[in-house]
Amino acid sequence: MVAIGGETRDRVSRAAGPLATAAVRRIETDLEWYRALSATDRSWIALVAQAAVGAFVGWLRDTGGEEAAGRPATADVFGTAPRELTWSISLGQTLDLVRSAVDAVEEEVLRLAAPGDESSLRMAVLRYSREVAFAAAQVYSEAAEARGAWDARLEALVVDAVVRAEADDSMQSRATALGWGSVASVTVVVGSTSVRGGATVDALRRAVTKRGAVALAAVQRRRLVVILGGTSTASGALSIVTSLLDHFGDGPVVLGPTVPHLFAAGRSARAALSGLAAAPAWPLSPRPVLADDLLPERVLAGDAQARRTLVDRVHHPLQGQPALLHTASVYLEGGRSMEGAARALFVHPNTVRYRLGKIAELTGYDLAHPREAHTVSIALAVGRLAATPPVEWRLGAPSPARDGVRRLGQVGGAL
């Protein structure tokens, strides 16, 4: 490109103020969304337009727009505006601003060009506008990276608060900043993490979005914790997690119960983590598996909440039906034989069959199914323990067994 003459450069330099005014006026005229912005945002955009025109004038004056002089310096064009402006307008809107401003400047400077400089001046304007557009893209890229890093920290803090069951005001504010203030139907999922780490979290989040749900996720050492939102039913959550298994590492993947909102997710997290710890006791468990399906193993691992849940679901309902409770005990202890239970109860096998159907209706567990029979057996055992008052021994007090031996010795001595 031929260098622009000195006369043209002087004319453009003297018209820097009117050029900036024309650029802002064109933006106001062409862009309806710009007029809807706050006065503060509009003033920042006006400053950016003035800085862009000033930088263009300075570059043209110093280099004449020659290719050999290097690329225009556009790094400081957006430096006058705060980074928060990227939250108010999108990259597409910023490019619309650049386009409108460039159109206005191009019209004005062509009137200022000395004879023979028109074409070179137009090319200089286009070259400068290209550099400004690239600079805008870089600003938004850096803002997106910073926002992503900040969001990742917030996300990790929210997940940690859910795992710790700390639903306080700080978690609420962080969740709201992440757009989770009104997300309903929340399910916590835990499993081991794959070797891909952070890449797994990003890919997992995108996969959940494709399924019409939302997710928060964090890697905690070798554990991957995922909070699913928008899963209205347990079956819906199970279907989504089944499609995400490739994002987890080896081993069990456990889903906690679905709760109404994020601030009740601590209950779902406790059940899921308890299930993950107890899952090795059931080697043939499905993958993924519901924490409720691991209730017997969780009881054996010492989970008090699982013990209460089993007692409430099985033992308490059957306590009000003594015949059903007795039938369940006899049937389970007799090896789940219909005829054997009938003989032990002195009833017809059809009576046993009828009672087993009533037990299934009352508790939700079918004793004809081995896994469900195992669950009921554990539930009856912990229910009996809960109903038995604990025996308290005082330190130094004689136990009934020792007292019996002592009396037996006294009797032997008398003989």
The residue fraction in helices comes out at: 55-70%
Rg from alpha-carbon coordinates: 37 Å
Task: Report the total helices.
Answer: 18
Q: Please state the overall shape, judged from the principal axes of the Cα atoms.
A: rod-shaped
Structural class: alpha+beta
Low-confidence region ranges: 411-415
- Give the biggest sheet: 6 strands, mixed
| Total number of strands | 6
Average pLDDT works out at: 81
The helix/strand order is HHHHHHHHEHEEHEEHEHHHHHHH
The N- to C-terminal Cα distance equals 130 Å
Strand content: 5-15%
Description:
Helix 1 (6-14) runs antiparallel to helix 4, helix 2 (16-30) crosses helix 4 (39-63) and helix 15 crosses helix 16 (349-363). It contains 18 helices and six strands. It is α+β, with helices and mostly antiparallel strands. Strands 1, 2, 3, 4, 5 and 6 form a six-stranded mixed sheet that branches. It has helices spanning 6-14, 16-30, 32-35, 39-63, 85-88, 91-112, 118-163, 169-177, 198-210, 234-242, 265-278, 295-300, 304-319, 322-333, 338-345, 349-363, 370-387, 400-414; strands at residues 184-192, 214-220, 223-229, 254-255, 259-261, 289-290. The radius of gyration is 37 Å and the shape is rod-shaped.
Write the layout of secondary structure elements.
Layout: H1 6-14, H2 16-30, H3 32-35, H4 39-63, H5 85-88, H6 91-112, H7 118-163, H8 169-177, E1 184-192, H9 198-210, E2 214-220, E3 223-229, H10 234-242, E4 254-255, E5 259-261, H11 265-278, E6 289-290, H12 295-300, H13 304-319, H14 322-333, H15 338-345, H16 349-363, H17 370-387, H18 400-414
Parallel strand pairs: 4-6
Antiparallel strand pairs: 1-3, 1-4, 1-5, 2-3
